Amino acid sequence: MCVSKVGRLVVLVSGSGTNLQALLDASADPSYGARVVAVGADREGIEGLVRASKAGIPTFVEKVGDYATRTEWDVAIAARISAYEPDLVVSAGFMKILGKPTLQAFPLLNTHPALLPSFPGAHGVRDALAHGVKVTGCTVMLADEGVDTGPIVAQEAVPVLPDDDEAVLHERIKTVERRLLVEIVGRMAREGWTVSGRSVRIGNHTGGEST
Ligand code: GRF
């Protein structure tokens, strides 16, 4: 798979949208190389949508419950995303697995608050704490049809401290996660990237073929 540069970002959110905000802030500088052209969500009434509106970015909401089948939702959200012609879709705290209609049309970047392949799924922070690990972290990866199973783009470690609860640890991780996500999206935008099997390489993009 050979992918060139990113300019247009569609960001998907389900919650507070602090990762979205970090991308919005970074892309205010034209030299960042990418800009958020739309924000999508799977629910209404979330801070992430408010952040988008405040920034003057168009939004859309597609709720799974509004469709008879998950497949219909997959097709509907892919169509909404497609309308904004993104170069990259960023799942930034979006709590749904996207299906083939989106995955086959666009590269999809995801962020997760644990060091994959440890602690995938919706409770990565809670599961790491319950396991008693001393180091956890965050992972930025390309999404596939699995739960946090796609090729890893970047990771960064975060210490677990003795008195951490889930909220405290998650906030420490998110501070790192936001910086890493902004850095990786910006580098992908400016330098291009290639994927070969499970190996993702940013930069040194020759425009040649890869698998
Ligand atoms: C992030 O830690 C993300 O990895 C996880 O949920 C959190 C979303 O935070 N899936 P926010 O909505 O960007 O503030």
UniProtKB/TrEMBL annotation:
Known catalysed reaction(s)? Answer: N(1)-(5-phospho-beta-D-ribosyl)glycinamide + (6R)-10-formyltetrahydrofolate = N(2)-formyl-N(1)-(5-phospho-beta-D-ribosyl)glycinamide + (6S)-5,6,7,8-tetrahydrofolate + H(+)
The EC number(s) this enzyme carries = 2.1.2.2
InterPro entries (UniProt xref):
Formyl_transf_N (IPR002376), Formyl_transf_N_sf (IPR036477), GART (IPR004607), GART_AS (IPR001555)
Q: Any idea which positions bind N(1)-(5-phospho-beta-D-ribosyl)glycinamide?
A: 17-19
Q: Can you tell me which residues form the catalytic site?
A: 112 (proton donor)
Looking up Gene3D superfamilies in the UniProt record yields: Formyl transferase, N-terminal domain (3.40.50.170)
Positions marked as site (Raises pKa of active site His) = 148
Q: Which residues bind (6R)-10-formyltetrahydrofolate?
A: 70, 95-98, 110
Q: Which SUPFAM superfamilies match?
A: Formyltransferase
Which PROSITE patterns does the UniProt record give? GART
- In its UniProt record, which GO terms are filed under biological process? 'de novo' IMP biosynthetic process
User: Per the database record, which ranges form the Formyl transferase N-terminal domain?
Assistant: 8-184
Give UniProt keywords alphabetically. Purine biosynthesis, Transferase
The metabolic or biological pathway listed in the UniProt record of this protein is: Purine metabolism; IMP biosynthesis via de novo pathway; N(2)-formyl-N(1)-(5-phospho-D-ribosyl)glycinamide from N(1)-(5-phospho-D-ribosyl)glycinamide (10-formyl THF route): step 1/1
Instruction: Look up the domain of life of the source.
Output: Bacteria
The secretion signal range is none
Entry GO MF terms: phosphoribosylglycinamide formyltransferase activity
Instruction: Kindly report, in one word, the top-level EC class recorded for this enzyme.
Output: transferase
A GO-annotated cellular component: cytosol
- Return the similarity comment: Belongs to the GART family.
Tell me, in a sentence or two, what this protein's role is: Catalyzes the transfer of a formyl group from 10-formyltetrahydrofolate to 5-phospho-ribosyl-glycinamide (GAR), producing 5-phospho-ribosyl-N-formylglycinamide (FGAR) and tetrahydrofolate.
What's the name of the protein?
Phosphoribosylglycinamide formyltransferase
Could you read off the lineage of the organism from its UniProt record?
Answer: Bacteria, Bacillati, Actinomycetota, Actinomycetes, Streptosporangiales
Which gene is this protein's source? purN
